[in-house]
Write a structure and sequence with these properties.
Layout: H1 2-9, H2 11-28, H3 34-46, E1 49-50, H4 53-56, H5 66-72, E2 74-75, H6 77-90, E3 98-105, E4 110-117, E5 126-128, E6 136-137, E7 144-150, E8 154-157, E9 165-169, H7 174-182
Parallel strand pairs: 1-2
Antiparallel strand pairs: 3-4, 3-7, 4-5, 5-6, 7-8, 8-9
């Protein structure tokens, strides 16, 4: 994996990927609470840079795999959220506790994606967001208006600030299907720009 990233993106990207693998291995070798896992993953990925898809990938909307995100050294909100989601899943956080939530960031007046963590099915979720370093309850994030959410299996329409109404399978999302089809080290994409310069 690290060798593939180095071949496509260079030595600095390989170091980022090695740091990611070290973080994952470190967490897996310890007895760590889910909240601590969330915090470490959120902090790790929030160090990367935000950059628009059109500038980075030459497309209006492109969901990068975690390796592409680390390789490029940055990405947009979907890339931050997806890297966190896949890493949390690898670290043993159950899929039914996680959702990627497509929201309207009200203060920015733009669409945005975050990760929601539900400690229990009826709990108010905690939000992992690249716009804000701290993990906060959704009820403390009046700046976000949820639209829809999904995880590896399901898609929900957000009728109110709760869990939403089940709207079918996540496979209804074409960008999700495309991402899952590319989640392979042999299918890395090259960004249009080099962020490590």
């Amino acid at each position: 994996m690290i060798a593939a990233v180095q071949q496509y993106y260079g030595a600095t990207a390989a170091k980022r990927t090695q740091s990611w693998r070290s973080m994952v291995n470190n967490i897996q070798s310890q007895t760590v609470s889910e909240r601590e896992i969330l915090s470490r993953v959120n902090i790790f990925f929030n160090r990367l840079r935000f950059i628009d898809d059109i500038k980075l990938w030459g497309k209006e909307d492109y969901w990068a795999t975690p390796l592409e995100f680390l390789g490029a050294g940055g990405g947009d909100c979907e890339d931050f959220s997806l890297a966190k989601y896949f890493t949390l899943r690898e670290l043993g956080i159950a899929d039914d506790k996680l959702r990627m939530v497509y929201v309207k960031a009200l203060t920015l007046n733009q669409f945005h994606m975050v990760v929601a963590y539900y400690p229990t099915p009826a709990a108010v979720p905690y939000i992992l967001d690249n716009l804000e370093g701290s993990i906060r309850l959704a009820t403390e994030r009046s700046d976000l208006a949820p639209i829809y959410s999904f995880n590896g299996q399901h898609l929900w329409l957000m009728r109110e600030r709760g869990r939403g109404e089940l709207a079918g399978k996540a496979s209804r999302l074409s960008l999700w299907n495309d991402l899952r089809g590319r989640w392979d080290v042999n299918r890395l994409q090259k960004p249009r720009i080099n962020l490590d310069r």
